[in-house]
Amino acid sequence: MDAIALLKADHKTVEALFRRFEEAGPNAKKLKRKLVDQIVRELAVHAVIEEQVLYPAVRRKAEELEDTVLEALEEHHVVKWLLKELESLPPEAERFNAKVTVLMENVRTHVSVEEQVLFPELRKVFEARELRELAELLTMAKKAAPTRPHPRAPDTPPGNLAAGAVSSMLDLGKDALQAARRTVEGMIPGTEASSNKRRGRKAAQDNAPPKSPELGAETGLMH
């Protein structure tokens, strides 16, 4: 797989999430929240690996594509702010669906330009071997990329490389904190998580086999 095929695969993954969101009913709020969380993660990672690997390589190799790359960076900037707002916006919010719609419009335009304008030019500029090497670098960058949007972070080297490493560590901490919060909520009476936990324990008790009588009670040996 070369760099173009890898990035197109990312585009297809995001588009599939967009379509699932569009097909979800007006009352499917939990599903929409889950889909948006996935969209945020996919786009945050995708944007970072393009900024760290693809765009610098294009600017070094093809000065004539400089304007295209700069416009792409600005499109990323807009998208990352939308992702940041959606990250904490509840699905019941009045502008939740509208914000997701605007996000999808921006991303679809960005993808269209990349696939119809930028990628064909990359086929001309880069050798097949170079595109395969770029794919390896993109794959490596994915493993260390932040999973949340950071619109204030630098988006060009060398600043984005250092910022990306720090942001990735912070995101891991946030994910761990969310998991811990869910665990704590499960221990607090009155919360939904706690109620679900109690219902689970009760169901397990109801389905458990009956206990055998104590030896002493059965034989009368206990006084």
Can you put this structure into words, describing what you see?
The protein is an all-alpha fold and 223 residues long. It contains eight helices and no strands. The protein has helices at residues 3-23, 29-61, 66-88, 96-125, 128-144, 159-187, 192-207, 215-219. It is elongated and about 60 Å long.
Question: In terms of structural class, how would the helical and strand content be classed?
Answer: mainly alpha
How many strands, which pairing sense, and closed or not: the largest β-sheet?
A: none
Structurally, the number of domains stands at 1
Strand content: under 5%
Residue share in helix: over 70%
Number of helices: 8
Low-confidence segments, given as residue ranges, are 162-174, 176-185, 191-195, 212-223
- Radius of gyration in whole Å, from Cα? 25 Å
SSE order, as H and E?
HHHHHHHH
Average predicted local confidence, pLDDT = 80
Span between N and C termini?
Answer: 79 Å
* Shape assignment: elongated
Count the beta strands: 0
Which terms would index this structure?
223 residues, mainly alpha, 8 helices, 0% strand, disordered C terminus
Write a brief structural summary.
The chain has 223 residues and is mainly alpha-helical.
